[in-house]
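As a warm-up, study this chain.
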Amino acid sequence: MKQITKKPWFWPAVYLSVCAVLLSSFFIFQGGGTDLADDEGEPAEEESIFDFGNDANDEEAMPVGVEEEHMQLPVFDESVVEVVGHFYDHNATAEEQEAALVYYNQTYYQNKGIDLANPDGESFDVTAALSGEVIKAEQDPLLGHVVEISHGSDLVTAYHSLEGLQVEEGDTVTKGTIIGSAGENEYNQDAGVHAHFEVRQSGVAYNPMEALDLRMADMSFDDSEGIQEGTTPADETDTPLTKKAKMKQMNVKMKTLP
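Now compare it with the structure written out below.
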């Protein structure tokens, strides 16, 4: 043995043999016995360690942590925009309700969201207020480009008067993802370049300002404070509101008569 150990090739051979044994043991351990046969004599199907039993037909899950996110205005920097159109609140004063009307085609409509604009009239990036799945991304002849994002639990945020869309239906977005930029539309020309933002629960629109900085779990919705579907020209339903607003509407119509 002493003579063999003195050979120049002895210790390299021992080293390589030990390495071979260790590597073989490692691969056998990682393989988890995939060579084993089942009762039918066929190789057993390998089971992934990442398979948590999710079926391929299961509903797509929302991004992790979405329920813990706090809703934000759909912009990177809130200081570069101001609210130029307010949500129509049934409990507000007559003056506040009048200021929350959108005039289109000689008719006044309830504003179902808020309108954001840059004081200089410049466009700005519009972002997702919460993480979720894009369920609509299309051009509307009246509202401009429209994006709707589902956040689960029947909560949807909607963005109108956009241009240069950067998402499409089926995309999963995270909070703060750019979805487009502010533009103009036919419905609210008085707002100029702006972005319209809505928060809907089960199809009913609620004041977005009351949902800001809240987690989904902390949001509560009172049907008496929301606006049901059917209050925009897209739904072909006009909504005369306060007596003062109705008189304004009548005066406008009278002026158009010959």
